[in-house]
Amino acid sequence: MRLAKYLKLSIIILFVLVIGSACQNNQEGGPDSYISMNELRGLSEKGATLDWSDLNKYSFEDTGSGL
Fold this sequence. Notes:
Blueprint: H1 2-22, H2 37-45
């Protein structure tokens, strides 16, 4: 009987931990991580000299095409 009680308690604790970790906000950066209109204009003025390193300070999520 005692073993069943500990097993139930362990499952409940595990469930609470999983739900709690799923509800965390893992978003990096805030509103300042967006490109402002002035910064976007500055980047567009670079034209063909624009490089990936110019965008390093902005967070992104690579979604891909799913293929």
